Amino acid sequence: MTEEKQTSVLLLEDDVLIALDLQHILENAGYRVIGPAFSTATALALIENETPALALLDANLGRTNSFELADILVARNAKVIFVTGHSRGWISEAHRHRRIIEKPFLPSDVLAAVKSELNAIKCGDVHPACAV
């Protein structure tokens, strides 16, 4: 079993086609996808008993956003990447420093961002061999 297959990624995206595309990209790379969730309520239910290593969160969910969910995930030591068509300035100030994948995206951009964030978890930015 590869390391990626042991790694869980929460997926929150309110656009079904984008969610399925992201799920396909992640699963083909060997990650275990939690979801996809199409609302924060569903995402919260999915992570009730499990904290993912990383979450891909659509920042804009129509009439709401994913910033409160991001707060919860960060408090549980999960990495968060926002997937959005908005500028960084639209992101909540508390999360503006986080990695963003811009829509439209390429599969290679998604995988590079996920690997980079997960590498930071493993390395804790301490070991020189872990420098990205």
**Strands, count:** 5
CATH superfamily: Response regulator
Strand order of the largest sheet: 2-1-3-4-5
CATH architect. name = 3-Layer(aba) Sandwich
Poorly predicted ranges: none
CATH C-level name: Alpha Beta
Structural class: alpha/beta
Shape estimate: globular
Strand content: 15-25%
What is the secondary structure topology, with strand pairs?
Layout: H1 3-6, E1 8-12, H2 16-28, E2 32-37, H3 40-46, E3 54-58, H4 67-75, E4 79-84, E5 99-102, H5 107-123
Parallel strand pairs: 1-2, 1-3, 3-4, 4-5
Q: What this model shows, in words?
A:
The protein is an alpha/beta fold and 132 residues long. It contains 5 helices and 5 strands, in the order αβαβαβαββα. Strands 2-1-3-4-5 form a 5-stranded parallel sheet, sandwiched between helices. The chain is globular, with a radius of gyration of 14 Å. The two termini are 24 Å apart.
Compact description:
The protein is of the alpha/beta class. It is built from five helices and five strands, in the order αβαβαβαββα. A five-stranded parallel β-sheet has the order 2-1-3-4-5, with helices on both faces.
For the structure shown, list the relevant keywords.
alpha/beta; 5 strands; 132 residues; 5-stranded parallel sheet; Rossmann fold
